[in-house]
Amino acid sequence: MTLAGISFAYLRARPLAAALNVLLLALGVATVAVLLLASRQIESRMLSDAKGIDLVVGAKGSPMQLVLSAVFHIDVPAGNIPLPEARHLSAHRAVKKAIPMALGDSYKGHRIVGTNHDYPGHYGARLAAGGLWEKPMQAVLGAEAARATGLGVGASFTGAHGMGGEGEAHDDAPYEVVGVLAPTGTVIDRLVLTDVKSVWAVHGTEGEKDEDQEITALLIRYATPLAAATMPRQVNANPHLQAASPAYESARLFRMIGVGIEVLHAFGVVLMLAAGLSVFIALTNALEERRYDLAVMRMLGAGRGKLFGLLVLEGLMLSLLGAALGLALGHAATGLIGGLLAAQNQAPLTGLLWLSEEWWIVGGALAVGLIAALLPGLRASRKDVAGVLAEG
Amino acid sequence: MLRLSGIRHLYGARVALALERFEAGAGEHWLVHGASGSGKTTFLNLVAGLLTPSEGKIEVGGEPLAKLKGSALDRWRGRNVGIVPQKLHLVRSLSVLQNLLLASYMAGLPSNHARAAELLEKLSLKEKAAAKPHELSHGQAQRVAVARAVMNRPKLLLADEPTSNLDDANSVQALDLLQNQAQECGATLIVATHDQRARARFEKRLELIT
User: Fold this and answer.
1) CA nearest A6 in B: which residue?
2) Domain match, A221 and A141 both
């Protein structure tokens, strides 16, 4: 026999009340856990997607839209930029590397990105099968794009106009799959890569002179950190061009959605506190119901500390069960949301991930249970044994 | 074994118990009787260390009870005093066996499964070991309460109104049970009751008049 065993027997004797308290706490913990898991994964994904890209240059418009479309591939581009301007910029002495990007089509929701071999190289992508494209109309699939579409090396497909695959199909310009990339954990996994000239060919501009060609964006890596101070200004001075810093725009985006995350986070904390209050009320009521039991325990020799420990253990057990169930629910919900996002060709989230911050959630839940049990515990330890037994 | 001298216990201004002198030897069986409100339960609570007398001295085995404070007094009570409360007060969420083991655990003693099994066997409760208190008849519940009280082989066995609400046959059984168990433990038995049927069974009697 142990104190924990006695506490557990009490909880088992009141299964509905115990289950409701556990559930309430679990909902709070799950809300906080989902927010933590989702925000950390999205943040980490955005950081890895934007890593090594100092500046994005595209058509004049919103810098955030430019970053979202050209780096994270979750928005549509505002327009195109003239190829000569892009070439001129690529040759700038402050630019170490410039990766061109031509967007416009997609296949089953996976964007077709016209670029050069530097783009998969930038993300450290390795080939899982086949090779990279050597000529226009050859395509290489990211790992997730290959899995979702079921295409492999040697297969052919036709893209559709637009980013969501809902537009008119380019049946007269089929692509041949020549390679499939291994998973990288970055945005490239969801893309279909090809040569820039493929995009021009599909849209009937291949034969035009270079001066008349366009691309969608240029991903730039500076040769020197000093370029960060001058280059965006120079680019933005051009009436056709817009410069955007992925780091700055990501931070701005997080500040904007951060308010919503904080509100939801506060909601989760409120749920946890409400659960704490519920545990407090349950233990206080239980104290009244069990005054004879507690008096008998004192009669049998239990010290005040033992009765205090009994009530505190009950609070801790409820909160531990709530934390465990809440974390399980939180991970399951994150996995479910991840599955829904993956079905929409968005960056997937996984529930099969343990963050060290989750120990803080467990600690917070236990603290709620402990605090909720302190007062009932103290009252239990101060009961007048003789008085209670006499009134029985 | 047990000596009380110059005892007065007050609830506010009301004198609940006034007792000049009382002595009980080891293994003796005493009946404490008196009308309702005469201080029988207060007497038992004082002897068990659940109450501290407003005046006077209680000695158990030659040692003054007042020397024990806090957890030391609780531990002493758990190990040396067995109490059968009037309403029995079995812990409802625990099984019969667990109610018995609770006595050892709360007294800070190791769980004595062998002793619990022995008592369940002797008191014909073996089949009810896993039952919860609400599944027991009154007679069975009373036997469990007595078993719990003698679980730690106490030196003092105290019973408060053990025959109230019992018919003659069950009253005899309850007193038999207490006296037999006290004898087996070598405990001093003190039964507090206003039930006149119990008088004949006890040679040593203390009448309380307040």
Assistant:
1) B94
2) yes
